[in-house]
Amino acid sequence: MKRLKYLIIIALVIASALSFSNVVMASDGDETEAIDEKFGKPIVVYGESLTEPQKEQVRSLLDVSDPESVQEYIITAEDLVNYINGDPNSNLYSSAKITRKDEGYGLVVNIVNAENITEVTNEMYANALLTAGVENALVEVASPLKVSGHSALTGIYKAYNVDGESLDKDRMEVANEELSVATDLADEEGMNQEKVSELLTEIKKEIADQNPATKEDIEKIVQAQLDKLNIELSPEDIQMLTSLFEKMRAIDIDFGNVSSQLEDIAKDIKGKIEEVAGNEGFWKSVAAFFENLFESISNLFK
Hints:
Elements: H1 2-25, E1 43-47, H2 52-61, E2 71-75, H3 77-84, E3 95-100, E4 107-111, H4 122-132, E5 137-142, H5 151-162, H6 169-188, H7 193-210, H8 215-228, H9 235-250, H10 259-300
Parallel strand pairs: 1-2, 4-5
Antiparallel strand pairs: 1-3, 3-5
Helix pairs in contact: 1-10, 3-5, 4-6, 4-10, 6-7, 6-9, 7-8, 7-10, 8-9
């Protein structure tokens, strides 16, 4: 009888532990915001390779219940060439919804179904868009199938151009190169995506603070941030980074104007890194709990 009581207590403990883990891992749903009439309807840009059923799926992902509530456009291979000198033979699937916001809102990027955007993170998009000159907007990205996510960036450029605000082509091209550098570092160097974003953000923050006048100044900033973050790169990749930020310096991108938004990106990255570390610690403690629990159970029958 005593053994039965033990088993009942153990079953209740296990059930409680599982319930607790479900609560911890639950995701908070985002509330749908009303359209800000001052800026007009949000703009949704679809990749031209999408089929009609896939386009409907993207509408659902981007919370477009009524197509009349947004302005819809298609990004084509011709756009890819016009905006970033891209490959005219590219397939375009990733899509984006852009909602303009008031001054001071900042730049918020949300990949709706991150499992289908395999190479680009929220912070990578945000960094590249700041480079291109995009500010004060909510940008949502989605794809109905697994893609790298690069074409969504060009779709966002198109949204700004059809909305009457022409982005500088040199800045768009450098921003696209920045996204390619970020994904290359994550892929070839095996760096954590958050670490890549942290590196790019910290370099921009230092450029904003120091206002480098020469390529040599850029080299010093890049190396200093690599040392600070304990990142080791090949000489080729260091040169790739230096070349990227030298191009930004040459076309006079003033990151001082968006320093607060760079700080926001840095905070988001830090939060994600801490969350990953926290989750690892939590699940290690759960594993240890069950290991001890099962050992106690086995001891009951000895």
